[in-house]
Each structure stands twice: as C-alpha cells, then as structure tokens.
Design a protein that fits this description.
The complex is a heterotrimer of chains A (659), B (169) and C (502). With 659 residues, chain A is mainly alpha-helical. Chain A has helices at residues 7-24, 30-56, 91-114, 121-140, 144-162, 169-200, 208-215, 217-237, 246-249, 255-264, 269-276, 278-282, 285-306, 312-332, 336-363, 381-395, 401-415, 429-456, 465-470, 475-490, 505-514, 525-550, 558-566, 574-633, 638-658, and strands at residues 68-78, 81-89. The relative contact order of chain A is 0.07. The model of chain B has no long low-confidence stretch (mean pLDDT 80). The chains are: A mainly alpha (659), B mainly alpha (169), C mainly alpha (502). The interface between A and C is large, with 45 and 50 residues.
C-alpha cells in the first residue's frame, strides 16, 4: 500500500466514527462508544506521524517539492469551474495533522473520563469525531473550496459542541453567538474566495500563485482585496478584533472541547489559512500590515481583559485570544513560520492549561470560580505541575516552548521595520507592534500566574472542605496532561534561533511552503539579545508581582481575601479599590461599548433590521398575505374543491379553444 | 332518422341528469338517473357501440341503480327539509350549458355536419364494428394486457373495501 | 393480430408480475397472521417488509435484464423504451425505500393490518403500468390501480377521523378527475380513431396541419381534458386541493409513499403523453401545450410556496412543498417539450432527487412520531430542540430541507440546475425567473423547521412514550440522506443514468 493510499483513511475513519456513534451510540455500551470514538483519532495520529516523518526526512533534493497527494477525482465540473477532490500533505499540513490527531487523541482519551457520566456522551463523541474530520479536511484540502468545506464544518461542530448542554439557555445562546459571528467571517471568506476565483480562474493552491504573478500589476489589487476579505474570515474563526466576542462565551462548552477546538486547533485555522496563502499576503504588504496591527492590538486587548476574570476558563479564553493575536502578529510581519511555530507550541501548552482547568473543574464538581479554589497542589499534584509548566511556557520562561516561539515573533515584529524588513514601507510601525506585544507579554505573565496561584497555591483551599477532601485525579486525564506538559516543555527546541545556537529547524522545514523567514540587512544580534532580555525582565517582573500579591504557601492577607471574595463587586476595600476601579472602568469604557456596538450592529442592524425586517419584508410578507388568500380557497369543503377544479378545467379548455 | 333519434335520446339523457340534480327526494333522483342512463345506451347504439350499449343497460341501469336504491332504502332517507338553492343550480346549468354550446359551435361547421359526415375513420368502419365478438377479440389480443391488469384493479378494490369497511380490525 | 403475438411480450412484464406476486404473498400473509392474535392485532412488520423488498429488488433486477427497444409490445400497449424501464426502476427503488420506512409506524399508527403492504405493492404495479403504458386505456387501468390503492392507504388509519375524511375527499375528487381524463380520452379517440400514443401522434400531426376544423378542436379539447387529469394526479394548481388534506390526514408513511411515488409515476406518464402522443419525441404537434404547462407551472409554484409559508403543521407544509415542486417539475416539462432529450434527463433526475429528499423528510417525521401517537399533530413547535435530542435525525432532516430548497452541495441544487436550465435555454426566461424566486421563498419555510430543530429549546414537558425504532427505517434514512449528499456531490454518474430516455 502506497503511503498516499492511507490519506483517505485519515479522513474517513473519524467520519465513520462520528457516524457510528451518532446513529447507534445511544444503544451501545459506553466502552464501545469510547473505543469507536478514540480509535480513529489514534490510528490517524499514527498515519499523520508516518506522513510527517516521510516528508521531513525526505532526501534534500526532494524536500522542496515533496507532497503526499490523494485524488478523489473531479468533484464539481461546471463551465470553467473545476474543483478537484484532491487532498495533499505538505510540510505545513503535515505539522497540522500531527497536532490535530495527536492532541486530538489525548483529548479524546481525556474526554472518556471527563464526559464519561454524561447521558449523551455518544452525541458528544460523534460531534468531536466530526470536528476532527472537518479540521483535517480544512488542512488537507488542496483547493479553496475543500478548505472552505472544512472551514464550515469546523464552525458547525464548534457550534454544536458549545451548545452541547443546550438545556441551559446560556449555553445555547453562546453556541448561537459563535455561529452568527462566524457567519460574518465566512461571508468574508466567500467573497475572498470568489475574488480569487474570478481573477485567477482556479481554486487550486498549486496553480494559484503562478496565475497571480501572471496578472502583473493588477495582481496587487486582487491580492489586497482577497487578502483583506479572507482576513475578515480569519478574525471570525480565530477570534480577533472585531469578531473575537464569541470565544469567551464559547467556554460554555465542555472543557475538552475548549481545549481541542477553542485553543489547539480550530481557532488557529485563520493562521493556517494565511500561511497557506502566504504568497497572496506577501503580494499585498498593506494587508500584511493590517494583519499585524490587528494581531498586536488583539494580543494586548485580550490580555487586559484576562486580568480581571474570575472564571478559570474565561481567563484561559482571553489568554487564547491574546495568544492568537501574537500568531497573527507573527504572520502579519511576514514571518509565517514564526507565527505558525507559535500555533504549534501554543497547541500544547494551551491544551494542557485547558485540560488542567478541566481536571480541576472535574475534581471540584464543576466549580469554575478561582476565588473558591486555592491550595489544590496537595490534592492534584500532576495537574498542578503540568499547569505550572504550561504557565512557564506561556509566559516565555527561557527553555520552555513559549519562550522560543513568542520571542521569535517579537523579534520578527521588531525587525520587520528595519532596513529590508517586510514592513519597512510603514516607518515606525515596528516600534508600535513591538511595544504592544511587549505589553501583552507582560500582562500575560501576570494573569497566568494569578490564575495558577489562586487555583493551586495561595495557601489553603477557600471553598467547601468536603469537596476538597474528595478531589482526585483520574488516570487517563493525568496521562493527557503529562504528555501535553512534556510538549509544552520541549517543543520549543524544534525552532531554536541562531543567536541561541540553533538552526531554526522548523522554519527551514516549512520554507518550501511559506517561504524563508525574513531577515533584515545587517547584523542585529546584539539588538536581538537585548530585546529578548527586555521581554524576559518584563515577564519575570510581573510574575514576581503576582507571587507577591497572591502568595504561594502563605495565606493571602485579610485584605487580599476580601479582594478575592468581593471581586469584581463594588469597593468595600479602600486600599485595593482603585486598582479594580481601573479595571472596571476599563470594562465599562471598552468592553461594554464593544458589546453594545456588536449588539447594535450585529443584532439590531444586521440581524433584526437587515435579516428580520428587510429580507423577510422582501420575501416573506407578500408571501404571508398571499397565503391568506390561498387559505380562503382551501377551506376544506369538497364542493369548493370540485368547483375550483371544474372552473380551472373550463378556463383552460376555453382558452385553448379560443386562441 | 338517425339524427332525430340522436336528438331525442340526447334530450332525455340531459333531462334525466338535470332531474338527478334538481329532485330533492333521493329515490326519485335515482329513478331519473335510470332515465338518463337508459337514453345514453341509445346513443351508444347510434355510435355502433352495441356491446357498450348492452353493458350500459345491464350494469348501470340495472345493477348500480339497484344498489343505489337499496342504500337509499337502508339509510331510510327522508325528504331534506332544506330546499336546493335554485340560483346555485341555475348558475351551474348556465355555465355547463354555455360551455357545451360553445364547444359544439367550435366543433360544428354547420348544424348537421358533425353527425352526418363525421370523422373519416367513422365512415369507414367495418360491418361488425362494436359487436360483442369484435370487442371480445380486441380484448383478447390488442388489449389483453390492460384487460388482465383489470384483475389487479378488482383485487385492489376488494381488499380496499374490506380494509375500509370491516368492523373489527 | 392474434393472442400469441400479444403474449410474446411476456418477458417484458415480468417485473410487474414480480411486484404483483409480492403483493399477493403479503396479502395471504396478512390473512394468516390476523388469525394468530385477533385480540391485540399486534403485527411484526419484518416479514412483510422482507417479502415486499424481495419482490421489489427482484423486479428491479428483472428490469435491468430487459433490453430497451423502441417498438411497443403487447399489441402496442406497453412501451419498453428507456423511459419506461428507467421510470419503472425509479418507482421501484423509491417504493422500496418508502415501504421500508413504513415498517416503523405500522405498529404505532393504528395500522395493524398487513394489507398495507399488499396494497402498496399493488399500487406500485399500477404505477409501473402507468409509466410503461403507451396507450390511453392501459394507462387508465394503471392509473386506477394506483389511485384506488392510494385512496385506501390514505384512509388506513381508521381510528382517526381525519384520515377517513382525507380518504373520502381524495377518492371523490379523484373520481371527478378520472372522469375528466376519460372524457378527454374519449374525445381524443373520437378525433383520431385510436387510443395508442403512436397513432394519436400521427393522426394529430395530420389533423393539426390540415384543415379538418371540427376534428382539430375535438382533439385539442380532448387533449386538454387529459392534461387536466394528469394535472390532478401531480397536484398542480388549481387541481391540487385534495393534496393538503390527503397529505395531512394520511398516516405519515403513506404520505411519504404517495408524495413521491404517485408524483413520479404521474409525471413520467404525463411526460410520455405530451412527448409521444401530442408530439413525436422531438417535435410537438400541439403548440398550445407549452403555454398551458407554463401557466400551470407559474400558478402551481407560486400558490404552493405561498401557502406553505403559512403552515404550522409540518405535514401540511410538506404537502404544499410537494405542490410547489410539481410546479418546478412543470417548468422542466416545458423545457422537455422545447428541448427534448437533455431536459427529459433533467426532469427525471429531479424526480429522483425530489423522491429521495421528500421521502427522507417524511422518514424523519415517522421517526419522530411516538408510540400510540395516533393523533400526534406534527406542528412545527414539536420540532423545537429535536436537533439536539436526536442529532442524527436533525442533521438528516436539515439535509433534506437543504435539498428541497436547492442549496448546494445537496442533490437539490444540481437537480434544479438541470431542471431549469433547458427551459432557460429555450427562452422561457420569465418562467425560470419565477421558478427561482419561488425557490428563494421556499427557503424560508424549509429553513424555519431547521431553525426550530437547532435553535430552539425543546418544550419542558414532553411525552415519555418511546419513539419508534426500526432497523428498516434507519436503513432507509441512511440511504436517503447519503443518497441526497452523494448524488449532490458526485452527480455525474447519476445524471448519466437518466441519459437518452427518449
């Protein structure tokens, strides 16, 4: 069997699993449901690893061109629209499928314990397998249409899983919010795709760059329009300004879902798409600048919002938005492999953090409020230490994975404005981007340590003692945490920068797809080291501040306790009042208006006015009144039926005879 | 002669049919129906359809009307209290009459042409056209398939009648 | 012509005979079974479905064995061209799916008699005769076999007065329509001297090109009345009024059965009549037929869709949707009259797609019915939250609704393109615009059910009666769902199946 013949199985197995559990799951023993759900992903992980190994160990001469391709045949052929059913693995998608199936299998295993008691667990696994299928399709599709099908598929699964516990109204509406916001983004993707199709006449990733080049000067305009619309789609799927609002709400779904979909894989689809279309964005520097600015702003903005959350998952959600901002910043400054490297490392440490929070939530019987936690390290050692490792990773502590990936992005952001950089055309922009990123990184360190300390340390447990006594860890959940924790610790070494004696291995491996990392002219080693040190100092500083504030072993002081208990209530404690007043004001000035705007714009204007009034006015209202007329005729009396029949027949006969 | 018989039979057919609609007493309406159906069989004879004419008398004027009368007597129907609404009946007659007249005008170049000359294939009919023998031969050769399929139709009718009317299911 | 000539066509009616034998066997089984447990009348559907499926599958196999030929057999009453064979095959396949679906509700809908299966199979044999008939009398016999069986099936739920009422209404208006058709057929016979389509065609060409004025009018009026008879069976406005009542009153499985098979059979017989009796396949002898059909199409689509928007009862909504689809199909028929071959292909392909999607939708309704839920009103709010409680059913239903409204990648989209394309080619731009606008309106009510399923919470108190579960139903739903998707995503080979029908 050729290697490429395994490729369809990668897709078909999860689909079959989803189908099997969806249709029959309710009547099967849980063990079988678990087995059917997990096996396709684990087997898929094996296939993915084999493929990645084959691709990355290919002989040097083949390295640029190697792809593993499977063709399902022509999918649609109508006029000049020819869409192939081809799926392909190249360097970029090889890494993605490894992440999807690898972390996917861990999360499936984790879910068997986390969701084991849920009565409709088969439905959960059915959606989850369907998600893996869609995500793989998104990544493997060799043309815009297949990618878009996957794109829609993951959106649908995300919606279904957020609203999984739909009996709670809030969950259902969170699912709906995610769906509607993503619809706006998808609109952008459709427009962008159509722009490319009409301009280039093809949707195949392989032939599109050449067609764009052939357009010459006009290609720049096409690229700009398409790139911006596609980026709108990316802001929806990857939760960036202005469409990020759905992701924090999406935490209503089961925690493993948050880990897999809303941290490790689906939300990175936007970055994946931009990497996949790197040639397009490279051809439109203005679009790149927009991506970078939006990314940097989101990184900082979300980080500030993460500061004040008391729900452990909400903190992680804002953190995800912020980290996604970093990734967009990376791709936005033309360093596609740097952005993608952060996708890779983030997948590990953020999945680990989410699963850790899930383990805590599970152990504490669905307690998510960090004010009622603390001191859990005694009860949940594995969870604690993997969480701490991941926190070190996300803050960028030297040696941990986040350090390498985040610093690469920040350095690339800075050097993009230097002589010969990608954004040299926008003078001064690089300083702004770096400053925003630095601020975001500083805040990241603080809020992550805040949540870590309040959850696992800060003296004793602050909630119900009985719950604390019964808190325990589960074997499979711990296994997933350990593997992901190791990933958070080690994956950074795949891409060690030159100044630290590495070779940027991942960047080199990816260069056939996304191009080489941009390098500014001249020797900037001292500058790079300096900036790295500055970032490190800021992160360590806020880590120390967090430890001083929340403590490791010592009880928080009375004032701190009061702060914790009343947060974010109104000021009972004068001393700390002002600090939180700033945050609350911040929420009032920025978050609420944004929600308000989104309410007015998306709900009132788009939904209520454009859709409910205008669209329905155009089509449905005449339809409705026309319907009343018809209903008068259809009154249920057989005589009237016969009369209408006879008159109808007579009318036709008369018409035929007289004409 | 033919023309006279045709008009007489046609008039009786229409009269009988109108009476079915107009008469309030169901038993009288059934009797009027016999009149109409009987006159119709005369027209069949004029059209060289002797077999159909006989069947018309046997099945419709005979069996079916007897069935109607039985049902009417079983149900013990009395004269309905309410009269028929005459404007309604008159309207229906006007429309049907108007349409028929229009159709007839459309079909006939002059008043007699249709009956006397007729379509070419009617004039060229063989002597035994419409006899029992000829119809029987057609049924057993050209139309043997629909004829045999009628047995399925009857079977469906019987099964259906049982399903619809059997007391205990 | 002697008897042995006629009987030479025996092999060509073997598929029909297979179905009739299946019907006879199930009928005898029903008799044997009803004596076993006369008190409760509980019936296991399995053996009946198995027999029915065996006979249908065997009939399908036999159909594939027949070599198509242009010349009619059985004394010129039965066509065995590709239109006839593919049409019969289509009906057999759809009927097999419909009968499988019915297995689930046989015990829940108060239908405890195995005669259901016998009548369904007889009905199928009638449809096969209709589709293959190339002569007015033969067609009429087929039509009546089908109609009588369907009347009884509609009234099968004897404990429900609405079912009874629907059956009576359908029966009476059906008899009314049959009378129109017969009157028309008699006039056509009077004008042409034959009831065979081939003879009518030659005669009509002569009559309409010559100056035989009275006969010309007689033919036109006769043909028009025949068209009215067909229009009744396909539920075209204004001859549609039986449909909502019958669809709503009939047991859901019967509604599904009749919504697809009756419509498919009537449409294919109609197609043969207008193409081969009123024309000779490529040219049409009666020019007015295009105008009549266009007019019927516009009225049917518009009224069907407008009425569907108002409905709260999903079965009734689907009834109006099926009326609207008759309108779309009439657009395709206009195209077929103008363009011949490719349009016929599109029309039959759309019948296939419509059959799968509609049948699937009714299958989901069957699956949602509850035990002893004889009076389960299929109101739209009954669907609230169903997508969460039964995700597979919900997704399947959404797929069917997408297909019916013609949204890619379902087969409905491909079907509509192939259906409307030829009419557009032939210059009926206004007609196609009306059809497309109607499709847009239809999205509103199709999606409103999906919205209820996935965007509303289920009502707090729900009947605890268990739902019906039947492997037959599940299997049929799987086939229809995947059929709609696969045909939509890889349409080429399915379209090819319906090529060169005329």
């Amino acid at each position: 069997m050729q290697l490429n013949e395994w490729l369809p199985w990668l897709l078909l197995l999860p689909l079959a699993g989803s189908f099997f559990n969806g249709v029959l799951g309710a009547r099967l023993p849980k063990g079988l449901v678990f087995f059917v759900a997990c096996m396709p992903i684990i087997v898929g992980a094996g296939i993915s690893a084999t493929m990645a190994y084959t691709i990355f160990t290919a002989p040097e001469v083949d390295k640029a061109a190697i792809r593993i391709v499977y063709d399902f045949g022509t999918w649609i052929s109508a006029g000049n629209l020819e869409v192939s059913g081809r799926i392909a693995v190249d360097q970029l998608s090889a890494i993605m499928i490894c992440v999807i199936t690898g972390i996917g299998s861990l999360i499936h295993l984790y879910s068997t314990e986390y969701m084991g008691d849920d009565p409709s667990v088969h439905r959960y696994f059915s959606y989850l397998n369907l998600f893996v299928f869609s995500m793989l399709l998104l990544v493997l599709g060799d043309n815009m249409v297949l990618m878009f099908v996957g794109w829609e598929g993951v959106g649908l699964c995300s919606y279904l899983l957020i609203g999984f516990w739909f009996s709670d109204d809030a969950n259902a509406s969170a699912g709906k919010k995610a769906f509607i916001v993503n619809r706006v983004g998808d609109f952008g993707v459709i427009i962008g795709t159509l722009t490319l199709f009409f301009a280039l006449g093809t949707m195949d990733f392989a032939t599109m760059p050449g067609k764009l080049q052939a357009l010459g000067a006009a290609g720049g305009t096409v690229a700009l329009i398409a790139a911006l619309f596609l980026f709108l789609g990316a802001t929806g799927k990857s939760a960036q300004i202005p469409l990020f609002i759905w992701l924090p709400d999406a935490m209503a779904g089961p925690t493993p879902v948050s880990a897999l979909i809303h941290a490790a894989t689906m939300v990175t689809a936007g970055i994946y798409m931009i990497c996949r279309l790197s040639w397009l964005y490279t051809a439109a520097p203005a679009a790149l600048a927009v991506v970078a600015i939006v990314g940097a702003l989101t990184a900082l903005f979300a980080a500030t919002m993460g500061l004040m959350q008391t729900d452990i998952k909400k903190v992680l959600a804002y953190s995800t938005v912020s980290q996604l901002g970093f990734m967009f910043l990376g791709v936005g400054v033309g360093a596609f492999s740097a952005g993608f490297f952060h996708v890779f490392t983030h997948a590990f440490f953020k999945a680990c953090l989410f699963l850790g929070s899930g383990a805590v939530i599970y152990a504490l019987h669905h307690e998510q409020d960090i004010r009622k936690m603390g001191g859990l390290w005694k009860k949940l050692p594995i969870t604690t230490w993997t969480f701490v490792v991941s926190t070190f990773a996300i803050m960028g502590f030297p040696g941990f994975s986040g350090f390498f990936s985040k610093d690469e992005i920040m350095w690339q952001a800075f050097q993009s404005g230097l002589d010969g950089g990608k954004l040299a055309a926008f003078p001064g922009l690089n300083y702004l981007l770096f400053a925003l990123a630095l601020a975001a990184a500083t805040l990241t360190s603080f809020y992550m340590w805040r949540v870590t300390l309040l959850t696992f340390f800060s003296g004793k447990y602050r909630g119900d003692q009985h719950t604390f006594e019964h808190a325990k860890e589960m074997p499979l959940m711990s296994l997933a945490l350990i593997v992901l924790g190791l990933g958070a610790l080690l994956t950074g070494f795949l891409n060690v920068p030159h100044i630290l004696g590495g070779h940027l291995m991942l960047a080199q491996l990816l260069s056939p797809v996304v191009g080489a990392l941009p390098e500014a002219h001249g020797d900037h080693h001292a500058l790079e080291i300096g900036l790295m040190a500055a970032t490190l100092v800021c992160s360590l500083g806020s880590m120390v501040l967090a430890i001083r504030l929340f403590g490791i072993k010592q009880e928080p002081t009375q004032k701190q306790m009061t702060l914790l208990q009343t947060l974010p209530g109104r000021g009972f404690v004068k001393v700390l009042y002002n600090k939180w007043y700033v945050d609350e004001a911040y929420e009032k000035v920025i978050v609420k208006p944004i929600e308000r705007t989104s309410y007015v714009f998306f709900y009132k204007l788009v939904d209520q006015f454009l859709i409910d009034k205008v669209m329905i006015g155009i089509f449905a209202v005449p339809a409705k009144y026309g319907g009343y007329l018809v209903r008068w005729i259809q009154n249920g009396s057989l005589q009237r039926y016969a009369t209408v029949f006879a008159f109808g027949a007579a009318a036709i006969v008369v018409w035929v005879v007289l004409r | 002669m033919d023309v006279f018989v045709f008009y007489a039979a046609a008039a009786i057919t229409l009269l009988g049919a109108s009476m079915v609609l107009v008469l309030a007493n169901p038993l009288r309406a059934a009797m009027a129906l016999i009149l109409s159906l009987g006159a119709l069989s005369v027209i069949y004879v004029l059209l060289h359809a002797q077999f159909v004419a006989v069947m018309q008398l046997l099945v419709y004027a005979g069996a079916i009307i007897v069935l109607f009368v039985f049902v009417i007597m079983l149900l013990n129907l009395e004269d309905p209290k309410t009269r028929r609404s005459w404007p309604w009946v008159a309207g229906v007659f006007t429309i049907i009459g108007g349409l028929s007249y229009g159709l007839a005008r459309g079909l006939m170049v002059d008043d007699n042409q249709f009956i006397t000359s007729g379509p070419p294939h009617v004039n060229a009919l063989s002597k035994d056209y419409g006899t029992v023998e000829q119809v029987g031969r057609e049924i057993m050769t050209t139309f043997v398939l629909p004829f045999e399929m009628l047995s399925v139709l009857l079977l469906v009718a019987v099964v259906g009648a049982v399903v619809i009317s059997k007391k205990r299911l | 012509m002697n008897i042995s000539d006629a009987l030479a066509g025996m092999p060509q009616i073997l598929p029909m005979i297979a179905v009739i034998v299946g019907g006879l066997v199930t009928m005898l089984m029903a008799v044997a079974r009803s004596h076993k447990d006369p008190e409760h009348g509980q019936l296991t559907a399995g053996p009946f479905v198995a027999v029915a499926l065996v006979s249908l599958v065997f009939a399908l196999f036999l159909l594939t064995q027949i070599e198509p030929q242009a010349k009619a057999v059985w004394g010129g009453t039965l066509a065995i061209d590709r239109l006839s064979l593919v049409g019969q095959g289509l009906i057999v396949v759809i009927a097999a799916l419909a009968i499988s679906m019915g297995a689930a509700s046989i015990t829940t809908q108060g239908i405890v008699r195995g005669e259901y299966f016998a009548l369904s199979l007889f009905c199928v044999s009638g449809m096969m005769l209709m589709v293959a008939a190339t002569e007015l009398l033969t067609f009429f016999v087929g039509l009546e076999i089908m109609s009588l069986a369907v009347y009884v099936l509609v009234g099968f739920r004897r404990s429900d007065r609405r079912s009874q009422e629907a059956a009576l209404k359908y029966f009476l208006s059906g008899a009314f329509a049959s009378a129109f058709f017969l009157f028309g057929a008699a006039m056509v016979f009077g004008a042409t001297g034959t009831t065979a389509y081939a003879g009518i065609s030659t005669s009509a060409q002569k009559l309409l090109s010559g100056t035989a004025f009275p006969m010309q009018t007689l033919l036109l009026v006769g043909a028009t009345l025949c068209v009215v008879g067909f229009a009744f069976k396909i539920a075209a406005v204004p001859f549609h009024m039986w449909a909502p009542d019958a669809y709503q009153g009939a047991p859901t499985m019967v509604t599904g059965f009749m919504a697809v098979t009756v419509k498919a059979a009537a449409f294919m017989a109609f197609l043969r009549f207008v193409l081969l009796a009123l024309g000779d396949g490529s040219t049409r002898h009666v020019p007015w037929i295009v105008d009549v059909l266009s007019l019927l199409a516009i009225v049917t689509m518009t009224l069907g869709n407008l009425s569907a928007v108002l409905q709260r009862n999903v079965k009734r909504m689907l009834a109006y949707s099926s009326i609207a689809h008759a309108g779309y199909l009439l657009v395709g028929m206009v195209g077929a009259l103008e363009r011949g071959e490719p349009a016929v292909q599109g029309l039959v392909f759309y019948l296939f797609v419509y059959g799968l999607a509609t049948l699937g939708a009714f299958g989901v309704l069957i699956a949602l019915e509850r035990k002893n839920g004889r009076h389960d009103e299929m109101l739209i709010n009954r669907f609230a939250g169903v997508g969460f409680q039964h995700p597979a059913l919900g997704v399947a239903f959404a797929v069917f609704m997408f297909a019916l409204s013609g949204i890619p990648p379902t087969a409905g989209f491909t079907g509509k393109v192939l259906l409307f394309g030829p009419a557009l080619d032939a210059g009926h731009i206004g007609l196609v615009i009306v059809a497309v606008l109607n499709s847009v309106v239809s999205v509103y009510y199709y999606l409103s059910i999906v919205v209820y399923m996935f965007m509303k919470n289920p009502p707090p108190r729900q009947s605890t009666e268990p739902r019906v579960f039947s492997p037959w139903l599940t299997g049929a739903l799987v086939v229809t769902t995947f059929g709609v998707l696969i045909v939509g995503m890889m349409p080429q080979r399915w379209i090819d199946m319906f090529a060169k029908l005329v």
